[in-house]
Amino acid sequence: MPLWELVLTNTRMMGYKHFVPEIVKASYRRYRAWVLSRDLRPSASYFLSPEERSASAAVSVIIAVHDAPVVTARCISSLEKFGGDAEIVVVDDGSKLDAVRQMLDHACSRNHWKLIRHSKATGHSRASEAGVLASERPYICLLNSDTVITPHSWAGLVGAFESSPRIAVAGPSTSHTFGPQQVTRACHCRHYWSDEQIWCFAAKYVARHRLEPIVDLEFVGGFAFFIRRTIWNELNGFDKSLPDYGNESELCRRVVKIGLRIAWSKAAYIHHFGSESYGRTIGAAGIRRRSLGATDYINSRVEMNR
To answer: Which helix (H) or strand (E) holds 195?
Structure first.
């Protein structure tokens, strides 16, 4: 058994004790990430394969940004490197930091991306909808700004859509989300890896899993939410009562209700840090409050429609 698998096994068996000081926990997390990353020593340049570039041309990437300069800069940089021929639409949803606004201005100008700017934050749902309206490609990717795109972000998902017209929504594997798309090893290391380590892990992960069949799920994570444009239009996008949390899961319920499929492709990997953009504004307590409110709203809608 590789050392990193042994560490993961021991972590699951031992867990954390509540009385362990936070400094000890932090030291352990760093050490665990170091052990789990020992084989991620990229020695080659990473590039977009012809297959990935061809697939990217079918995708409109909509990225809603609300400050969070550090993770946003990494996301923008990865899109510049591996966005391929995708249509990129950046929605600056009321960012207050001049550094973020200038970064987006420069990135969109030099890459010929579309930039939409909101004077006040409207929330992820409304910002995403504004971006979709400005885009054209057959597949939409609603991408969180606290993600890192890899050289294996497009072909697995476009391939899933093209494998069956009944697949309406799809998502990649990742480092942080709710549900089975989350890769445990990547989750433990998500805040510690450099971009090069992320790309190296993605290459190893996809090489190992790319021939596995797609997995049908009830919903996929919203960090990189791929949907057919025709279905987005048919269902009129997100529920207008959900400004952010719960918007993707509610839309997935409507997709399933009309008899279509939601797929997870292990042939794609997009790294996700988690709660680093809009979540920074409202904090952990605010996230929990909005998530619970969204769940109550969605459940009430389900009861009404029975």
So the answer is: helix 195-209
DSSP state of 60: E
- Look at residues 105, 124, 103 and name the one whose alpha carbon lies nearest to residue 276: 124
- Which structure tokens are listed for 238? 């997100």
Strand partners, 274: none
Q: What are phi and psi of 265, to 5 degrees?
A: -105, 120
Choose among 87, 90, 91, 89: nearest CA to 59. 87
Q: What is the DSSP string of 255-278?
A: HHHTT-EEEEEEEEE-EE--S-SH
* Tokens 């050289």 sit on residue: 151
User: pLDDT tens, 155-211?
Assistant: 999 999 999 999 999 999 999 999 999 999 999 999 999 999 999 999 999 999 999
Alpha helices in 15-148, H assignment, sequence order: 22-36, 50-56, 69-82, 98-111, 124-133
3-state secondary structure of 123: coil
- Is the whole-model pTM more than 0.90? no
Q: Tell me the two tokens of residue 116.
A: 């939409």
Domains of the chain, with CATH numbers?
Answer: 3-36 (no CATH), 50-304 (3.90.550.10)
